[in-house]
Amino acid sequence: MIQFEREARTPTSESYTIYEDGGIVGRIDLHYQNGNVYGTLCTTADADEARIQELIEAIDERLVMTAEPYREDFVVTVWRGSPAGVYSDADFEDDEEDEDEFRMN
Length: 105
What we know:
Helix content: 10-25%
Radius of gyration: 16 Å
CATH class: Alpha Beta
Number of helices: 1
Structural class: alpha+beta
Number of strands: 7
Strand order of the largest sheet: 1-2-3-4-5
CATH superfamily: Gcn5-related N-acetyltransferase (GNAT)
CATH topology: Aminopeptidase
Mean pLDDT: 89
Strand content: over 45%
Low-confidence stretches: none
Number of domains: 1
């Protein structure tokens, strides 16, 4: 079963990690604007068209329609690939390297 874990939320956007069977299968960033919803879906490199449609339908039914039931359109841009990691520029107290560098968490 596809599950969603919210990572961030603002008044006009949300970001979710997508899980299935305990593993990460993608990420969706949603942006709500003037009755339309725009999404960027990042999924695994092996996701075929049927899998992409399944993810979009789950996102629409379980996330978009609950937040914006009267939306005019849901536009999704899809990226296929492999996760490279999560990077942050958080200040590491014990680290004497360049403080402006982004690092993998």
